[in-house]
Amino acid sequence: TDDLKAELLSLALEAAHKAGALLRDGRPEDLGVAATKTSPIDVVTEMDLASEKLITDFLGDHRPEDGFLGEEGASSPGSSGVRWVIDPIDGTVNYLYGRPDWAVSIAAEYAGERVVGVVAAPVRGETCHAVLGEGAWRGERRLRCRPSPPLDQALIGTGFGYVAGRRAAQAEVARALLPRVRDIRRCGSAAIDLCDVAAGRLDGYYERGLHPWDMAAGDLIAREAGARTGGRGAAAPDGELTLAASPGVFDALHPLLEELGAWHD
Ligand code: IPD
């Protein structure tokens, strides 16, 4: 499977760069909301749709037997054992507002296991990737998560879903956590948050209710950089908590999040 992983990585990198260039260079000045999904603030732009189409067309041309799961509707089982999990813009609200933290996230699963992850953040000018068992990189630079500080000195990222009831509960958890850690960041892209854990730019990141496409690539990148991920979120079916952190921070944060009720709506 080494050849397969190498092929999947090179296709994922090329697809992410093509989509990233389209999104960065082709963002309309008057970009508006094309549709809403789970709530009025859960938005889709025409560029989310264009990016997903570019990625699925490109990968489908090269590997017509593969399956797809995409945020904007791509869904097919395929027959090759490979499935692509795609977020055509992770951080759509940042993209809509012209803020820099958005990314194209592409993961490949083989026989149900994530084997390749690519997160391209074109405005940051950074692409991270990981291959199962082989490590995580940003360009040529090998990524390693930060040595774990005590929790009260840890910089923790989080995010808030779009569903109103869940947001209120997430705000309560963040309110209770804030005095127990160095500080909290909310960048607006789960994929970038997970890469930031991998790169030592955050000590940990948690969010409840991520979708598989938000975190499939970033989870592998964080793990391959030495972070621990999981906590009822490892394979993160909808609604589960995703937690990724350097190992000591994970061990301290996991029970605290449990105590603060972060697992529940
Ligand atoms: C969102 C981002 C955000 C997270 C939300 C996600 P999208 O993804 O990752 O950081 O807090 O839960 O839905 O909708 O921009 O692809």
TrEMBL record:
SUPFAM superfamilies: Carbohydrate phosphatase. Its cofactor is Mg(2+). It comes from the Bacteria. Mg(2+) 1 binds at residues 71, 87, 90, 214. One of its GO terms (molecular function) is inositol monophosphate 1-phosphatase activity. Its EC number is 3.1.3.25. Mg(2+) 2 binds at residue 89. One of its GO terms (biological process) is inositol metabolic process. It catalyses: a myo-inositol phosphate + H2O = myo-inositol + phosphate. The keyword Magnesium applies. Keywords: Hydrolase, Magnesium, Metal-binding. InterPro entries: IMPase, Inositol_monoP_metal-BS, Inositol_monophosphatase-like, Inositol_monophosphatase_CS. It holds the Pfam family Inositol_P. PANTHER family: INOSITOL MONOPHOSPHATASE, INOSITOL-1-MONOPHOSPHATASE-RELATED. Belongs to the inositol monophosphatase superfamily. This is Inositol-1-monophosphatase. The lineage of its organism: Bacteria, Bacillati, Actinomycetota, Actinomycetes, Kitasatosporales.
